[in-house]
Amino acid sequence: MRSLKIIIFLTSVLIWPALASAFSLKMSTAQIPLQTYLQQADEIYENMSLDEKVGQMLLPSYRLLAIGAKSIKGKSSMDCQTTINNEQATDQEVITACGLDQIAENKLGAVLQDGGPFYNAPTLNHWQKLNALAVTAHKAVQRDPILLIGNDAIHGNSHVQGAVIFPHNINLGVTHDVSLVAEIAALTANDSLWSGFNWIYMPTVAVAQDLRWGRTYESFGNDPELVSHFARAYVQGLQQASHLKFTGALACVKHFIGDGATQYGLDEGDVQFSGDMNAFWKLHGLGYASAIQAGVLNLMVSYSAINGERMHLGGPWNNLNQLKNYGIQGSRFRGFAVSDYNGATRAAYFFNLSHKNKLSTLPEILARTVNSGTDMLMLGVDAKKNPFDSTSPYYYQNVHEVAEALKSAVKQGLIAEPRFKEAVTHILAAKLAMQPQINVASYEQLQKKERVVALKAAEESLVLLKNEKHLLPLHKNMSQKIKYLIFIGETNDLGVQNGGWTINWQGQKGNQYFTGVDQASSGAKTIEQALPDVILRKFKIPLHIYHVNEVSDHLSELNATNTLVVTVVAEPPYAEYMGDIGNPHEVDEWYDSGIANHENNYMPNEQSEVLQLTWSNTDAETLNKLRDKSIPIVTIVYSGRPVVLTAGNAPLSNSNAVIAAFLPGTLGGDALANAMVGQYRFQYNHLSNMLTFPWPRNMQDVVDRFKNGELFKAGYGLPT
Ligand code: GLC
Asked: Is ligand 1 within 6 A of the CB of residue 259?
C-alpha cells in the first residue's frame, strides 16, 4: 500500500508542472488581432439596420425554426420531417418547411442543432444537407461575415450516425494527456466542419464537486489545475489559431460559472459560497482563465446560481460583466457570451420565485439578461413561463417573437445603445476572426485518424481499481488454457459505453446507430465483440462464448483454469438533469415534472436514490455459482462518474478484477480487450489511468463530498 501512496503523491505533486510545460512548448497561444476585428465590426455595425443588429443577437435552434414554420400563420403547411424525408422535395421546399427562411426574414447570424437527431436520419449527408440549406438561406443576410452553426460535439461529432465517438471528458481527464486531448479537439473540429457545423459547445470546464450531478462526466476532474490544462488544450485544438485567423471551429468555454458546485449536485441548481469572488475564481475560474489565454472568443453562461443569484441575470458579483470589462485575476474576456438554451427565460422563472419585482415581460427579461453580460440569446423549444409545468404558457414559440421583444427592449431604452453595440460588435468580431478550413483530404481519412486517437484515449482513460493475484493482463499460460468466455450484464451495449450526447441528447441503449458501415467507420465494438478476437489473435485460441442463460447447462464443463467471466455493470445513458441522483426532497418542488429529483423517474428506481451499481439478481445468482468454482471474474464499470460498488451484491468485493471504464466511446471495447490481454499496459510508462475524482466507499461519502474519506483517492490507479 505504501508504494501506492507514493504513486499518488508523485502524481498529485509532480505531474502537472511536467505535463503543462511539455504541452505549452507545442501549442502557442493565439495572437489573433482581435482589436482589428473589433474595429471592422464597428464599421459593419454603423451600416446595419436595427433589425440586422437584433438578428445578430439571436440563436434559434433548428427545432424552434421548424416549429415556427408550422405555427406562424400561413407560413408552411408542409412538415419539416416529411419534406426532408421526401427525396423529390426541392431545396426551397425544405427551406420553407423547416423554417430556414426565418433566417433571412429575421436577419439571423446563427443557428444550432439542439440535441436531437437529424429529422430524417442523423447521417453525415443529412446534416450536410440541412446545414448547407441554412447557409443558402443566410446568403440573404447582408453584411454578416458568416452563419454560425452550433453543435454539441462534446465527445466527437457525436450526433452523426457512424461517427467516431471519443471518450467523455471524465475519461480524458484520466488520460492526463493534454496533447492527446488537443488532437481530439482538432479532429472533432474537422469532423464538425465536414458536417457543416462551425461552432462547438466545448470545452466544459466545470470543476465538479458533487458526484450526484448528472453532468459530472462532462468535467475533466475535481482539480482546478487539471481542468485548466485541458481547457487550454481543447480550445487550441478546436480553434486552430493561425497568426491572423482561427481556421478550425469556434470554441465555447462553459458553463460560466460554478455549474459543478451546486448544492446536492443539482443540475441548474444553486452554489452556496461564503468566500469572496477571487476565492470562488480560484476554485472554478482557472479553466476560463486558460481558455481566454488560449484565445477563446465564446463563453456560455450557466443556468445555475451563486448564493441564489442566477448567472444569466448577473450573479452575486455581476460576474460576467466583471470578467468582460475588468477581468478577474488577470483574465479579461474579449469575446461574446451566449446564453444557455432558453437560459434567459429559465432564469426569469427562478428570479420571479424569489423577488417581488417580477421580470414579467419578455423585453424586461431579455434586457436584464443582456445587461448582465449575455450577448447572444440561445432560443429553443418549450420556452415556458414555468419550465417545469407542461401546461404553462409560452414566452415565445418562434424566433420572430423574440426579435420583436428585443427590438422593443432597445427602443424602450431597457438596453442602452453602448451595451447593445458592444454585444453585436463582439459577435461580429468573433465571426471576422474565423476562417474555417477542413484540413483532411477525405472523411474516410479523417475517421481513420480518429479511430487511432480514440483507441489511445480510451486505453489511457481506463482505471484498474482491483487486480487480485495479478489476474490482468491475462497471462500467457492462463490464456492458453482458456476455452470458455462467459459474458454477463451489458457486455454488448454501445449505448452504455458511449453515454449521453450520442446521436440524441440523452443517448440511448443499444447499437442501432453503429451497425454495418457505421460500425466500421466509428470503430464501434463492445467488449463482447472485441475480446474473443483479441484473445484469438494474441494467444491463437478459439473460444466458446456463453451468456448468463447458458451457464447452468454448461456449468459442469467450466473450471478455474478453462473459463474467464467478464461482466459489465453500467449506468444508463443520460444527459444534464436526467442524470441527477439522490436529489433530496428539499428540491422536489424544483423538479415537479419528475424528470430529475429524488425519485428520478428517468433513472432506474433502484438507482435514482443512490449512486450505486450492482448486478441484477439473475446475474448475481449465476456469478455466485461461478465464483464457487473459483472461476475468475473481471467486472467492467461503465458510468459517468465514480459509483458505489460495495452495496447489495457488491461487485467490487465479488470480482477478482475491476476496471473503471467510465464512458470510453466507440473504441472502448477494443481498449478494454487490449488492456485485459496486455496489448496495453495500465500506466506502464506514462502517467495515465489515474482517477481524477475520489471513489466512494458508500453513498455517505458522496453526500459528504468525501470530507470523511474515500475508497480510492483521486490519482489512484493500479499498474500492470
Ligand atoms: C444545453 C446545455 C449546454 C448545451 C446547450 C445546447 O441545455 O446546458 O451545455 O451546449 O444546451 O444544446
From this structure: no
